[in-house]
Specification:
Helix content: 25-40%
CATH architecture of the largest domain: 3-Layer(aba) Sandwich
Distance between the termini: 9 Å
Number of helices: 15
Radius of gyration: 21 Å
Structural class: alpha/beta
Low-confidence stretches: 134-140
Bound molecules: zinc ion
Order of helices and strands: EHHEHHHEEHEEHHEHEHEHEHHEEHEH
Shape: globular
Mean pLDDT: 94
Largest sheet: 8 strands, mixed
Length: 410
């Protein structure tokens, strides 16, 4: 049996006045997803326990069958795994966004989608400044703190203290910058053990970036400057059993987002890199669909994660969210469903990880709609794939990590 999992990140939402009371999923023209619903079942799953932060890290762990209450240790260690960084048990990884903060208000958690080249130049300057000087309080900085440039505004900071005690603990608290768009940041700087070190680094970057040539050029071009680094998502490497051990199946991941690449690496899945996949609304949907179809004969489970729906939501753009849903339906779900049918026994699951309501421009807690069709799945009465249908369904997983065993059951 072959399995496909399609994750339109953050696509679940609320009724919109601008859509006559419909949600973006209801308003979007998605015949392939509705076909899965009509020939299979529609239900819902809660992937984010109330006490954990609503985000792709917790939610995708759950969606892939890993109880986040047991396995979640922060976002950054997952992204470090994506970059092939082996963290020692005493090492800490910290997500490092380049952001734009004006008058203590988060103007942009992406520094206006700064380019990878610009971001690397700024982080290299900060690293040089760090290596050139010592740190007032906390561990000696030289040699134990390292900035690791990633893609655009998504970067990492590693603390590798060796045998020295690390200043952080599970009580160290940080706030994701995408939860602070257009809000004051004054109450959301790092808190708890080691927070002074993080705050000091954020302040150091502010001073250094103020008149940096990269920012002067961006401002001259009418673009937002990167005013400082924002440090969050701190943690140590989670100890995850492989997907094969946990669920008895092999798998491959198609995604343009480091977080999902890292998660795939930690559960023993291969990552398929698709040229043109950007992790944004300009991604090459057709290429992702093509590579997924080509991968079906080579693995038990093929998973396609698409970030575009989440990015559109963070920008509060309903039209872009609907367009992304329609592109995913036409270029990913439809061809994958056809290819699965043509090869024999199969199952397909379409489900976002968490809701990202355009009203609040960030992730939220709450159940997400899912649909499953294929061999051994008796069709229910539902005909469309959307939130109201899912909310009235009897198929519900309060512990979202129980969906995967249900989907893979023989
Ligand atoms: Zn997400």
């Amino acid at each position: 049996m072959k399995y496909a999992i399609i994750i339109p990140d953050g696509c679940a939402d609320e009724p919109q006045e601008s859509l006559g009371g419909k949600t973006p999923m209801q308003a979007a023209n998605t015949p392939a997803m509705d076909e899965v619903a009509a020939t299979g079942v529609v239900g819902r799953a809660n992937n984010v326990p109330a006490h954990l932060p609503a985000g792709s890290d917790v939610a995708n762990l759950s969606l892939l069958g890993y109880d986040p209450n047991v396995y979640f240790t922060g976002r950054a260690p997952l992204e470090a795994a994506a970059q092939g960084i082996q963290l020692a048990p005493n090492d800490w990884a910290i997500r490092c966004n380049l952001v734009t903060v004006e008058n203590q208000v988060m103007r942009s958690f992406t520094a206006g989608h700064i380019s990878t080249e610009e971001a690397t130049e700024l982080l290299t300057a900060l690293q040089a400044d760090l290596d050139a000087g010592s740190h007032e309080n906390g561990p000696p900085v030289r040699g134990s703190l390292k900035f690791v440039p990633g893609v655009s505004y998504r970067n990492l900071l590693l603390l590798q203290p060796g045998d020295a005690p690390a200043p952080f603990s599970n009580e160290t608290r940080t706030t994701p910058p995408h939860d602070l768009t257009d809000k004051s940041v004054a109450q959301d700087y790092p808190r708890g053990p080691g927070s002074d070190l993080l705050t000091e680094l954020m302040g150091r970057s502010h001073d250094l970036f103020a008149n940096h040539p990269v920012n002067l050029a961006r401002q001259a071009a009418g673009k937002l400057p990167a005013t400082n680094v924002w440090l969050w998502g701190i943690g140590r490497t989670p100890q995850l059993a492989s997907f094969q051990q946990l669920h008895g199946k092999s798998g491959k991941m198609i995604t343009a987002v480091d977080l999902l690449r890292g998660l795939a690496a930690l559960i023993g899945w291969d990552r398929i890199e698709v040229p043109g996949a950007t992790g944004y609304t300009d991604t090459d949907y057709a290429a992702k669909g093509r590579y997924a179809v080509e991968a079906i004969p080579t693995t038990d489970v093929i998973c396609v994660h698409v970030e575009a729906t989440d990015e559109a939501s963070h920008e509060g753009d309903v039209a872009a969210k609907i367009k992304a849903l329609e592109e995913i339906d036409r270029h990913v779900v439809a061809p994958v469903l056809a290819a699965l049918r043509a090869q024999g026994d199969f199952r397909i699951l379409v489900s976002p990880d968490h809701p990202t309501p355009v009203r609040i421009k960030t992730h939220s807690h709450g159940a997400v709609p899912l649909c499953i069709a294929g061999s051994g799945i008796a069709a229910d009465a539902n005909q469309t794939y959307d939130e109201p249908t899912a909310n009235s369904s009897e198929l519900a997983f309060e512990d979202g990590s129980q969906l995967m065993p249900y989907f893979l059951k023989s």
